[in-house]
Design a protein that fits this description.
With about 100 residues, this protein is α+β, with helices and mostly antiparallel strands. Helix content is about 50%, strand content about 15%. A two-stranded antiparallel sheet has the order 1-2. It is flat, with a radius of gyration of 24 Å.
Length: about 100
């Protein structure tokens, strides 16, 4: 149990003083909303179907689907290549 002396000057116990949480919409949410709207417009404008030939199959899909799958695969490859493995993380901790 906390004693009265354990709390910070503002009484919230974090010891950081009287920081007041901001209210309203943050710039991060505004940018995320704009990006979402642009992606929605992009998806609606690229709804025509195209032929896709990949390894052993041929199919027709929408352009936006091809772009989205490519983006997700690119992100995953970048994540796994750029993310350190277990042994690399141990070596970083030692340094």
């Amino acid at each position: 149990m906390r004693r009265r002396g354990d709390f910070g000057a503002d009484g919230n116990g974090d010891g950081k003083g009287g920081t007041v949480p901001r209210s309203g919409i943050s710039p991060r949410w505004i940018v995320a909303g704009v990006v979402a709207v642009v992606l929605l417009i992009f998806a609606l404008q690229n709804s025509e179907r195209v032929d896709v030939d990949f390894l052993f199959f041929d199919t027709q899909v929408r352009v936006v689907t091809v772009i989205a799958i490519s983006a997700v695969l690119g992100f995953l490859v970048g994540w796994f290549v750029g993310h350190p493995g277990r042994s690399e993380r141990k070596a970083m901790r030692k340094d």
